[in-house]
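G., the chain you wanted modeled:
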Amino acid sequence: MSSPRPESVISSSAAFSPIIPDDDEDEDPIIRSIDVFISPELSRTLHLLQFPIQPVIASASSSSNKNISSKATTPIEAKLRPKHNMLELEYPIPNSALGGHSHQQADNIHLTQRTFTSNAIAPVTHMALAKLDKAGERLDIIPLQKDVLQMRPSFKHLHNHEEEDDTQTNVEKAGDSNTTTSGKQKPILFQKKESDRSASARRNSYAHKKASEESEEWIELDVHGSEGKWSSVRKDELRKIVCANREQTIQLAKSKFTDGDGGHYVRSLNYMESISSAFADPADMMVMGEPTSETTATAGEDVDETAVAELASKLVVLLQEGLGKMIPFSVLRSNFHSEKVSDEMLIMALSSCAVLVRGNFALKSSLAQFLKKDVMKEMRDLMMLLLNMHGSIQRERLVRAFETKASTDDDYAVINADIITFVLETMAKLLNGCWVSKVPDDVVFAAKFPKFAACHGVYWMRKKEMLKELVELYEL
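Predicted structure as tokens:
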């Protein structure tokens, strides 16, 4: 897929005129034009590796010749657990890196190779790898969709030594115990049934996490260095870097608010959470539709999309207070001067970072910094959906729904009764056995801005479809 070369990308000065001046007064002359192609075939299998701590073998060979450095930076073994995004690399340790003290080291740390283990980091902005051809006329770009793997030294050889000592000690104690208790009757023990809370705690424990990781088999990977004879498999993979379909043209994504050229995509490059999450998440993007008749005369085409984005970032900070509690439109309106911020501009900014729940605005869960896991943000969305639909929530039903979901999906095991209560308390209060909104319903907003309220109604219809399984579990 090829990408057209708009003049605004080629040169900032050329964007206003198709004629490029040839005189020497041009401060930013164009020295080369490069065709850009998108090659997505490897996007779902390619990882970027980072080494925050430089391997000792790399520093030891940095002053050596090129051949030694190339061999030292190539691992001799590699294995992967794709389900858990775990990678292990084995690097040889040259004698020069030991400093001539190898004879003084204990057996458990007398190593000839060093293991590096991965820590998966989800990308917070757009990342890609690119290959420029030898002529410098074509650039093939591979967008990265997988987590970045940060490689750090592993010290498991020390833990293994300690575990061997503990195992030997336990075996000796068990032998002594068997000798002492031989011939005696053992008492019958009754174990209490595991409660839901203890089962959830067990699933969230470090031991359960390690057991889940250990249950996945390692996949041995073939290692190919930068030099030497390349295998046919590696040659086939390298061919996928080059875009196969160069006739198809793609365009930058357009904004939902305006027909501007690529504004939405450019803003999504911003890695600040408050902006990127609001504008880069297509599943959570609010489709505003046409402006209301009440605001067309005052705003019209004067609404600046950049100003709306800046206003949205301020609203995110305001809505974060009180752990994302709901705020009436009138209260939010009082924080901005009406001559500088029109009603339409404020509602457009709110609709990119907040949702309407029974006439009041609440921060979008995707922007809630006090919730670290996606399943917790999904739980908060479900709570707001239920409040919007029924006006109240039954906590026991929520607990049961997520326990049922956790029995088939381990990702939901982190949600227990305490977490459900904590999130409920940020938006609701207990009244007559049910949880109702802390803020009274506001019918004024829907009456004053019916079209905007209808757009938010469409948003909740989409959200209900996305959370269909959890809604059905709750309503059982």
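Confidence is low (pLDDT under 50) at residues 2-21, 255-262, 270-301.

Shout if anything looks off.
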